[in-house]
Design goal:
With about 260 residues, the protein is α+β, with helices and mostly antiparallel strands. It contains seven helices and ten strands.
């Protein structure tokens, strides 16, 4: 039996694995990246987040309107992932940007990791504020992430996902959202992206070609999390060849939305 990749974590939607595989074309058979520029699409982001963070994981309190929002959303860029088959929005993330008119504003991780950051590696306070941002609120609805060990995480990767040649499942959903944030950051003039992530996920994304550099000690924040950063230009220039078609497919979705 040939090696296969399940596009959403279940074995009934699988494709042969090969280093020459056109991941972009396969991605577009099942998924679409949608930048949430309108208020209606932002509400879809907040609905996905409420479903995951409030109802499913109970990280946040449930809201009467079933929209999970916070004080950082007004200065954030938002992304959605939609299932082509059902039209359902199944995942989301956001890029939190500094507020140019508020010198006292800090990105979420700058507050959460204030004592854990290793400022000999990088000091966010010394960087041009209009060139940095934080990726956060990555969430995928339960039906697209539920495998052994995944029920208590907003999105996750398995050990076998790191080996494209052997895996029976390719992590289109989390990697698609991260590559989407990369392109949206690039066209927005952002050079450095920060993220507070599970150590296991950070290691997996590095193996998959998304270069995450750890910049501090692990902290307790809904489980163990580590602060890390990504250089936007380096993600694009250094990604493995197999991911090029996937990146370009996702970039096309974003550029189409931007030019509308």
């Amino acid at each position: 039996m040939p090696n296969t990749i399940a596009t959403n974590g279940v074995e009934d939607q699988a494709t042969p694995v090969s280093e020459s595989l056109d991941l972009g074309s396969i991605f577009h058979q099942y998924f679409e990246i949608v930048p949430a520029f309108s208020n209606a699409l932002k509400d879809e982001v907040y609905r996905v987040r409420h479903q995951v963070y409030c109802e499913d994981l109970q990280f946040e309190s449930a809201r009467p309107d079933r929209l999970e929002t916070d004080e950082h959303d007004s200065n954030s860029l938002h992304l959605l992932l939609r299932s082509v088959k059902t039209g359902e929005f199944i995942g989301c993330t956001r890029i939190v940007r500094p507020r140019p008119d508020d010198s006292n504003y800090h990105l979420p991780f700058e507050t959460t990791c204030a004592t854990a950051l290793d400022r000999s590696i990088i000091d966010p306070a010394r960087l041009p504020r209009d060139r940095i941002a934080e990726v956060s609120r990555l969430a995928v609805v339960a039906s697209y992430r539920r495998r052994k060990g995944e029920a208590n995480s907003p999105v996750s990767l398995a050990d076998e996902d790191s080996d494209i040649g052997k895996s029976r499942r390719f992590p289109y959903i989390p990697l698609g959202l991260y590559l989407g944030t990369t392109e949206l950051a690039r066209i927005s003039g952002i050079e450095t992206l920060f993220v507070l992530t599970e150590p296991r996920q950070a290691a997996h994304f590095c193996k998959l070609g998304v270069k995450l550099q750890r910049i501090g000690e692990a902290i307790e924040h809904r489980g163990e999390r580590v602060p890390a950063m990504m250089n936007v230009a380096n993600i694009i220039t250094e990604m493995r060849t197999i991911f090029h078609s996937l990146y370009h497919a996702i970039a096309a979705d974003i550029q189409k939305a931007v030019t509308k």
